[in-house]
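REVIEWER CHECKLIST
Item 1: Sequence provided? yes
Item 2: Single chain? yes
Item 3: Sequence as submitted:
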Amino acid sequence: MGIRKGKTPRRREVRRTLKQPARPWLAWIGRREVIWSILLFLAFTTLGSLVAVSGQARQRYRVDHLATETIVSRVKFRAIDKAETDTRRALARAGTPPFYRANTAYLQKLRTQFDALIAVALDETIERADQIEPDLRQSLKLSDATLRDLRLYTETQEVPDQDDSVLIVRQPKQEWQARIDQFLEGLASIAVLSSEERNRIERDAQHIAVSHITIDHPNQGEKEQFFSTLHGVDDSPRAFKEHVTPLAARFPSKNIARSIVTLVMLNRQPTYLYDAQETFRRQKLRYDSVADVDRNYNRDDVLVLAGSRMTEFDLAVIREERGAYLTSLTPLQAWMRHGANIAIILCVAASLWVYLGAYYPRVMGNATRGLALVALLLLCQSVAVFLTSVRPDLIYLMATFPCLLATAVLAIAYNQRFALAIGSLLSLLVTISLGLSVTFAMVLLAGVGAAVSLLAEVRTRSKLMQVGIASGVAMAAMTWIVCLAQRRLGLDGVWALILRDSLWALASGIGTGMFTQSILPLVEKVFKVITSMTLKDLNDASHPLLRRLAEQAPGTYAHSLRMADMGEAAADAIGANGLMCRVGAMYHDVGKINKPAYFVENQSGGPNKHTKLSPAMSLLIIVGHVKDGIEMAREYGLPTTLRHFIESHHGTTLVEYFYHAAKQQREGEGKDAPAEFEYRYPGPKPTTPEAAIIMLCDGVEGAARTLSEPNPARIEQLVHQMAMKRLMDGQFNECSLTLQELHKIETAITKTVRALYHGRVAYPSEEKEPQREHRPEATVAAS
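Item 4: Structure as written out by the authors:
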């Protein structure tokens, strides 16, 4: 006998063998749409927080900006008076005299000529001046008297020393060099400049600093001198000669001195040349040597008074105060400050995701749409922060334009309710990022509300301009309201400031309308939507695809025209997009262009081509017009929204005629009847009310042509039967139609079909009948 186990061990074995069910919250987190939502939520919070922090750190003022409120210091700090510092440094730089260097090339040229004089005197072969080479004699201007004096000077003589006790042999050549050095040094003491430089110095009332080699003490290098008296090289020669003549008096004879003066006058050049590099170096040195001018501020000191215009110094003080305030915060306070900003953005992000989850879960589940929405919001937030940092004085233009643009795009891409909610959240996000008050958010909300209220549809190109003007006027009016309520109206210039801000708000609205109109094709392509303006263009009978349909399948084109009237009326009855239904009806059967003769509306009473085909082959041709239509739509670039009308206007309905033909054929052959799903369209089913309306209109229009007597009662019964048939077949399961809306659609289609197939009075023939006696009661009214 076996050993029986207790209940507890058996239960444990059962638990080990059975697969444990997954926890509900783990299964929910593992869903693809939830993962995408979490990633987008984290990305939006992180990037939005970074943009918000950078936006709050921006400079809020600009030079010449009117301060509407008094700004006081929050901490004790020190600020550099940049304006005063720059003024002192500029004065120091301006007070630095221009620097000139000795014209050594000119002085060396004179020395060479002076040496040539003594060399000629030392040449024993030359006794008269005419024995000197003509060019040299011409350059030296040497006369016989001067040559004789130089010969006497160069003779070696013995002279007593100071005590008359010893005779010293004099060296004329060395003595001549010493005299020349003294003369050139004296010449260098005369500040001769170019006339242009002299005029510039005198005009600026400056002294000059010069530097030249000290002849007496060459080891000392350059020596700096300052001159207040300047001479121009093109001035009167007599004045210059009066300065040079005393310097030449040191030479041993008047003839030699006269020759020296003549050589200097003939080769007159500036003794000093301007040194731009050294002047700049000295000016920079003086400029940098001036210390910064500091100003100390205590807590609660007034930085800028209300009503004053901002200066560069005021902006610098405000920046310094902000930096000092942030530095004064403890690490805990700094983290709490950043954490609070992140928490605010987190609340905005949470509000956005709650709204999307409650009303637009498809946006959260679609990674592409979710990413596009997050990118649009972050882009508008970043653009608002960047533009206001560049021009903070134009905040009513720079901060409102991105919000209005995003709102207009979302209203076009989705709907008004979605755009109003997201635009409001974006307005709040921008206001927080720029550190502005709630009154500015009211200006944004006024523009957002005005834009959304007028963007039900875009049928004309002027519609977006009307929306832009309306939103601009709304923001301008709200700007006046909030400014009158908050600003100090007694300040000078405040009325002009309010007027300017309101005009910039108006310009923001108008600019948004113009810019949205220019990017409308891009919006339609990115968000895969279609506007009424584009629908009107596609509804034009001159469109290449419609012209081809009218030429190659005229019966189908006429069928589409009747469906367009029916579909537009039915859509308008339930508040759907009637223009969308009209255009969808015009293109829903374009696939019949390839094989128009296989469809009854194009046969015009001719032979039926399906009589020679099997039901299965006929089915392929009939069903194939849906696939052909999709390929043509892609070829002609039709929007994705219109392609859905082509692929769903039959849904998964049964091709009844050929199904019954195949069923009879199988029964005649003694085989089982074919399955229904083999003779159904591949779908998909309509996913929008407009597509469902086109499906119903397609069935009604085809069946109405089979009525022998299309009276109102029969038409109403036909429409109701067709609607119930599609409903019971499950074709409306994936669209949001209600039974009440379906009833309204039936009523609207019935009215349109009655108008299309109304009876007419038989007119009398033109053949002459025997004249009868005229009776008033025999008159027949024509309709």
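Item 5: Key structural point noted by reviewer: Residues 99-282 form one domain.
Item 6: Recommendation: ____
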